[in-house]
């Protein structure tokens, strides 16, 4: 009997990852990871465009063609969200928010296909070390994807929810414990220390590096092989060949993954660069050597976060691993050694825990189940105001529990001053020029008076999403307060830009269907050519061809078909279908006789 479907609108949880993304939902009290249309529980965070920008591919299809179309395939967009591309042309035509919106839209589509109903509400996760601009930019991406982002929560916190609820099945509901979440994904690294008490989750401290992850390990491998090719074959610099680099990156990523289960792998790429066939053995020991400084860097962050939480290593009951990169044996070994032999927790799936926790929190917000889950997070970086000398006056220190509201008073710097500028920054450096500028505004019409007499109070308020609101008001006894509120943490996008991008996303929906049909037609043709080759060359298909000349013609036609496929990467669905019918007309009679297809 099929489970009953709750008629109320579901709130999905989305782990918008740098390398892969994942979506989950709570149904009938249970969190479920939703598989995509390829049957996979995670989806590559890749977006690709055809040469004329007429077609768009997202996810699996985009990643598969990345090596052949490197200049028009985008990945790691999450590392740029809330920032600007350096290339003015790219910046004008395409923003990281738009790319992230495409991936969020794919996750929304995956959920709707599974649930059989429209979805609009979502809880989206971000790295704990994302600043306010990046968080608001993520919300903008959700709006472009036609999603109502109900909450932004930190990835380690979401993983802790998954761990906490999983542990409820094994422990007393009121067992209080302190855990450390070590979250190393494809492009970001976070550490959070939490106190878990049943369904209550309180973040004590967080740390991390928004530019450290599995992609950096891939890059080290690439640099190693680039040097090796240069030394061994005395060729030109391969780093100028984007297509060759794309193929090399793909193989390095595969090798990295395989080394988690094998002590050595063979990296082989035929005709990689100027006739060079790469065929080299890569050992786990060499991989560890190339990345050891990065591994150590993550442990330094762990130590700093424990210090911020005012805890010793012995006080941590569980170390929870999140993110695909935590499968690296050397990292696990170093963490185990750091925590005096304590084995990291294996109770949650590193690839799925974040989406799982986000879905649980979404369920709480939609009033379904898990209403008892409470979450207290912290701000990852200090927030403050620039003084007249360019110094950072911290109002909300880092690792302050959110939501929160704090104030500081400032006096005028000039006689008869009638306005005061408020510049808001985020960071840990003493000078604002070294911190992240979030926004500014001017409070005008303040009471003119001698220098230092007029007092203005600046209030910083962080909501549950980590989004900042700033209020400035004059404080003079007996005078009416004047205030101005700023909520200018809107990433790089104006309201008109967001509206335009929403419109573009809707307009491209039909193009996406056409692009998908084209990919499916290509896959069908590719599979047919492969199966036919296998039947002819390894079976007795050629025996059905009469004379030697006929056999040669069949072999030549197979080579020609493969060459045609390589030369027509961007063909339309109709062209692929026509080619398939053409080949079937020649090959099928022979293969059917041989009973090979």
UniProtKB/TrEMBL annotation:
One Gene Ontology molecular-function label: ATP binding
Coiled-coil boundaries: 238-265
Keywords: ATP-binding, Coiled coil, Nucleotide-binding
UniProt keyword ATP-binding, yes or no: yes
Origin: domain of life: Eukaryota
Record family assignment: Belongs to the heat shock protein 70 family.
Protein name, UniProt field: Heat shock protein 70
